[in-house]
Amino acid sequence: MKSLEIFSGAGGLAKGLELAGFQHSAFVEFNKYACASLNENFDAEKVFFGDIQDFDFGALHDVDVVAGGPPCQPFSLGGKHGADQDSRDMFPYAIRAIEKLTPKAFVFENVKGLLRESFADYFEYIILRLTYPGFISKPGADWKDHLSDLRSIGQLSYAGTKYDVSFKLINAANYGVPQTRERVVIVGMRADLGVSWSFPAETHSEDRLFWEMYVSGEYWKRHQVPKSERAQITESLQEKIVRLKDKYGMFEPEQLPWRTVRDALQDIPDPQAQHGLADHIFHDGARTYPGHTGSDIDWPAKTIKAGGHGVPGGENMIRYPDGSVRYFTVCEAKRIQTFPDNFVIKGAWGEAMRQIGNAVPVMLGEVIGGELARRLDVRGDSFAARQRIG
Description:
Layout: E1 2-6, H1 12-19, E2 23-29, H2 32-41, E3 47-49, E4 65-68, H3 91-101, E5 105-111, H4 120-131, H5 143-151, E6 163-171, E7 179-180, E8 182-190, E9 204-205, H6 206-214, H7 218-223, H8 235-248, E10 256-257, H9 261-265, E11 295-296, E12 301-302, E13 317-319, E14 325-327, H10 330-336, H11 349-358, H12 362-389
Parallel strand pairs: 1-2, 1-4, 2-3, 4-5, 7-12, 9-10, 11-13
Antiparallel strand pairs: 5-8, 6-8, 13-14
């Protein structure tokens, strides 16, 4: 099956879909450094460097899935909260891609802030536009007028392509990514295919990690961490342990444990040692300040952030049991975002970290892509048979 990646960034979602079995038809990306990364890791002839408004969708054929991450700054909790008033809002162009290509399915990822109450009407508008991509607004109408018509579409005539659209706030840690990264994932399945969609079941849990740390002790044994370097059992921590035992009794939680920073980086040498890894360079100057304390080595990392002004802030640090901190290297940040070690991120450290922070974790992309491929493959055969009979 073929996929088109729009707002591709460095290619986290694209790599995940590739691992799930999709073949890339094209990549559309505006940032020159991200395009340089795409050129290194995928077929450079398929990379379109430029504005999506200038991309010729008509040149593509038989695209099964459109995927991407429309720029999230208009909805970011740390941004200016401009939504539709922000010139960086690219959702209208994502919808245009769906309208032009009528793919079997689409998958888009965006920040948690998209679900903010103040954006409720615009988010509803996005979902309805994705549901009825061919329902064009009246001349001179703004998006609010268009939303009003979309809400009444049952009383209007619409013979265009329709999609069954679902969305969910997903924590990537629940799918094995060593990072507590919450993002909204929107999936649409073309209605005429008769393909139902449900998000893949979560495979990892905080409870299981907590169990292996403070009930069985398996986590510390696995990493050979002495008691002197483990977190102290405080009164509140002891209460949580008691509640966990009461919840599960003698039986451990069924899911796998959340993966921690230590899990992800266990075989990577110290960046200040002799190692020969080109993207594992130590950067000095890391410090903590209120609200920016880094990521505990024995917990999933906090969200790797792109940063609004170049070099990322204090959250992109690793924090050790003695309280010391240092910046993640590019190599380590790739691990946290589940990129393959041989995946090349172009640009200096700050730019590379921006690309990594903007990416969809590869493992999450593979999980979503795998479920898409399974459902489209199973139902696609029966749909083709119906079309031949018809």
